[in-house]
């Protein structure tokens, strides 16, 4: 048997940096999986190990998490559903963790509503070009020009770069402060646990146990 899959094998987690990782560590801690070192903000270390549980953890940029998981560098990943959809990697989505709730929306000035109704060829700015393309082409059957941005996407309509944007809306305050609004909802979002398909087979028992324990904890917390 491949030595990667014996009893001594580490179960490796890739966590999306930031709030998502912190919340995930909180949940893992609640079910008895701890990783003290990882909480130390001053540390520049990249990989953290829990020798007792034979688990490893690393923090990665959100959009890289599905890459690490698909290619087997991590068995398990935690990342926003926005990233799961945008990256469209070959991974299993095993659990909706229920936190990080927000919405993917088409937003713009109220005047852009017309453009959506009449299926006009419009410009759409987004950090999520694949989600935007899928929504307009496959769901709305509307031909659009997609412009990829890397952040502060709300600027798009404000500086006449685009007619609308496809972006995450959480509290709605960024939109409000910039005179924009939600025009259509693409889908609801939250944090998801994803698993490498080979790990799913080879580490079935450990992964199933992990998912069950987290699910039980989340149910209790409801
Ligand atoms: C996200 C998103 C919106 C904002 C939505 O941006 O892209 O801009 O948060 O939150 P709100 O509805 O609560 O105002 P983020 O802060 O991640 O930075 P970015 O604009 O650089 O992507």
Main traits of this protein?
2 domains, D-Maltodextrin-Binding Protein, domain 2, single chain, disordered N terminus, five-stranded mixed β-sheet, six-stranded mixed β-sheet, alpha/beta
Descriptive account of the structure:
The chain has helices at residues 19-30, 65-70, 81-87, 113-117, 129-139, 155-158, 173-177, 197-202, 204-221; strands at residues 11-16, 47-50, 55-60, 76-80, 92-96, 102-108, 122-126, 144-148, 164-169, 181-189, 191-195. It is an alpha/beta fold and 222 residues long. The chain folds into two domains: 3-100 and 190-221, 3-Layer(aba) Sandwich (D-Maltodextrin-Binding Protein, domain 2), CATH 3.40.190.10; 102-187, Periplasmic binding protein-like II (D-Maltodextrin-Binding Protein, domain 2, 3-Layer(aba) Sandwich). It has a six-stranded mixed beta sheet with strand order 2-3-1-4-11-5. It is elongated and about 60 Å long. Residues 127, 151-154, 167-174 line the site of 1-O-pyrophosphono-5-O-phosphono-alpha-D-ribofuranose (PRP). 1-O-pyrophosphono-5-O-phosphono-alpha-D-ribofuranose is lined by residues 127, 151-154, 167-174.
Record the strand order, biggest sheet: 2-3-1-4-11-5
Task: Name the average pLDDT.
Answer: 94
Instruction: List all distinct small molecules, including ions and cofactors, that are bound in this structure.
Output: 1-O-pyrophosphono-5-O-phosphono-alpha-D-ribofuranose
CATH topology of the largest domain: D-Maltodextrin-Binding Protein, domain 2
Query: What oligomeric assembly is this protein in?
Result: single chain
Structural class label: alpha/beta
The total domain count is 2
Distance between the termini: 42 Å
Structural shape = elongated
The CATH architecture term of the largest domain is 3-Layer(aba) Sandwich
The low-confidence runs, each spanning 5 or more residues with pLDDT under 50, are: 1-5
What is the CA-atom radius of gyration, in angstroms? 20 Å
């Amino acid at each position: 048997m491949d030595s990667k899959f014996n009893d001594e094998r580490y179960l490796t987690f890739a966590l999306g940096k930031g709030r998502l990782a912190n919340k995930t560590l909180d949940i893992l801690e609640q079910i008895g999986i701890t990783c003290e070192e990882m909480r130390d903000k001053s540390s520049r270390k990249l990989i953290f190990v829990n020798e007792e549980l034979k688990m490893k953890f690393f923090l990665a940029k959100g959009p890289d998490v599905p890459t690490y998981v698909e290619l087997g560098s991590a068995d398990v990943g935690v990342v926003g559903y926005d990233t799961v959809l945008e990256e469209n990697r070959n991974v299993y989505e095993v659990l909706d963790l229920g936190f990080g709730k927000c919405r993917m929306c088409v937003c713009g000035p109220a005047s852009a509503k017309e453009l959506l109704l009449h299926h006009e060829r419009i410009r759409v700015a987004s950090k999520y070009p694949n989600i935007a393309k899928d929504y307009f082409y496959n769901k709305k059957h509307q031909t659009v020009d997609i412009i990829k941005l890397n952040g502060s996407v709300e600027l798009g309509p404000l500086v006449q770069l685009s007619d609308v944007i496809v972006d995450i809306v959480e509290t709605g305050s960024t939109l409000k402060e910039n005179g924009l609004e939600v025009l259509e909802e693409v889908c609801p979002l939250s944090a998801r646990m994803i698993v490498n398909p080979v790990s799913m087979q080879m580490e079935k028992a450990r992964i199933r146990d992990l998912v069950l324990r987290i699910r039980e904890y989340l149910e209790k917390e409801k």
